[in-house]
Amino acid sequence: MSQRRAAGAGSTTPAPKAENRTAAAKASGRGGASGGVAGARVEILGDGERLALGIAARLSRYLQVLIQARKMGKETISSQELAAYTHINSTQIRRDLSGFGKFGKRGVGYRVDSLVGEIRKILRTSGQHNIALFGAGNLGQAIASSDVFADHGFRIVAIFDSAPSVIGTEVGGVVVSPVSELDAIVASADIVVGVLAVPASAAQEVADQLVDAGVKILFNYSESLLEVPPEVTAHTSSPAVDLLYALYFYLT
Q1: CB 56 within 8 A of CB 120
Q2: Is residue 8 part of a domain?
Q3: In angstroms, rounded to a whole number, what is the distance separating the alpha carbons of residues 62 and 119?
Q4: What is the predicted pLDDT for the residue at 108?
Q5: How much of the chain is helix, strand and coil, in % rounded to 5?
Q6: pLDDT for 37-63, tens place per residue?
Q7: 3-state secondary structure of 148
Q8: How much is the pTM?
Q9: What digits encode the pLDDT tens for the residues 106-150?
Q10: Residues 239, 241, 242, 243, Cα dihedral to 10°
């Protein structure tokens, strides 16, 4: 493929456009959380606008913590609690959230369920998004059997593998399909995300196949540095990078 861009560990391509007139930028001077969630005014970005990469990443981390808090039965959460779980300063958290509306109440905190819905609107991730998982080995089976994607509105609707021994078997409630059916299934199931749970040596070939089938977002669990066209977004998840991040806070 021509005009490819490389996506390394912990990176995302393509790079975001220059920051447009976002709601967060317009409200960056506002701090604190006051008022209630009911009737909160959320400033939704226009079709041509995009969140700055930093705030999009932080909102995603808040959402991850909020979803886990909801599963634990928590109804409210404070900015200090969010800070403890995300290692993001509580002032920054309040500033980020107040840029889009008044979601919290002083002395009470944020209502978890409502804030989950509001952040999903801001990130444009409301509803369900279909995933194709490539690789039915140990890692693929663990991913298919967990709630790691389902909790965030993603549903694994197809699993592919090249090994004849696993084709036709069921993994996480989904029948493993041969690679030859990739194009047809991606089109019929409206799949927008491809998850790569394959060895690094096979990752680029699998990425090429998914891109050729029309998948626009790749999530790579291997250490391979993927090259993808500019219109495709590729992110590589590395446990080692996450460990280095955690180690930094331990040592400093």
Answers
A1: no
A2: no
A3: 8
A4: 85
A5: 40, 20, 40
A6: 333 333 445 545 678 888 888 998 999
A7: coil
A8: 0.66
A9: 888 999 999 998 998 888 876 688 999 999 999 999 999 988 788
A10: 90
